[in-house]
Automatic annotation (TrEMBL):
It holds the Pfam family Glyco_hydro_17. GO terms for molecular function: glucan endo-1,3-beta-D-glucosidase activity. This is glucan endo-1,3-beta-D-glucosidase. It catalyses: Hydrolysis of (1->3)-beta-D-glucosidic linkages in (1->3)-beta-D-glucans. One of its GO terms (biological process) is carbohydrate metabolic process. Belongs to the glycosyl hydrolase 17 family.
Amino acid sequence: MLGNNLPPASEVIGLYKANNINRMRLYDPNQAALQALRGSNIEVMLGVPNSDLQSLATNPDNARSWVQRNVLNFWPSVKFKYIAVGNEVNPVGGSSWLAQYVLPAIQNVYQAIRAQGLHDRIKVSTAIDTTLIGVSYPPSQGSFRNDVRQYLDPIIGYLVYANAPIFANVYPYFSYKGNPRDISLPYALFTSPSVQVWDNGRGYQNLFDAMMDSLYAALDATRTGNVEVVLSESGWPSDGDFGATYDNARTYLSNLIRHVKGGTPRRSGRAIETYLFAMFDENQKNPELEKHFGVFYPNKQKKYDFNFGGKREWDITAEYNGTLSLKSDM
């Protein structure tokens, strides 16, 4: 939504429906968007902004009123599927002061949802990024950094208790951009003609699988219990920086859409629920690269030629703020 040329919420919902996009990620409870979603049948991942974490963590009444205002007031005419409590909070670095609030905020929001008997319908979690992984190569040795375990392990434990997935934002683009000497473009774009990495009998032909499997291995290594992963963001910019071209973005996104239905070598055959970032190019974001992640132009024209479902094997879900979700019909 960080653009001054984007269509109004009602037109965005129309665009989703016209393109058979059946899920949406919203990064905050934008009231116009929630009103427009009424009766649309679009499943929603609703974000609690990082700026609200302290308030919701320190006072259960604040969490209850947040849930009432932004969820219950719209339910069931808006089909909430997930609540993402915080996005990419890191216990080390710029947002470290927020880390102490993530788990209590998750717990308070979960209890507010549970009090309404909706905890099996609406799952409460948080979105992490891959900077929390300390060892990612080879994928089977994936593990979280020692300095984030005290933060992350209790969250994972609570998600096991609540039977909720963890949300992960995974971008092969940034790994490629940061290390093009060791990571080839075909490996990042799913176009490598052969296996590039063998690891304990598993062959890796693309970077996405390697990144996801290092995350699965890191989760397994906590020995906390089984947690599913929802891919809450992935994308590739079409302009603005190294490797950011229209052709690369189209290739990555179209291959990602096809690929996630089959899982990864470590989780073979298990489709990955996936949200594409983002719905629109956003001209008020910085740096320049961040302006070019859209799958649609602000004038509602498709940027790329792939389809978002309908009678096909796949349907995709978009994030308006945001991101697109892929849901396999299998």
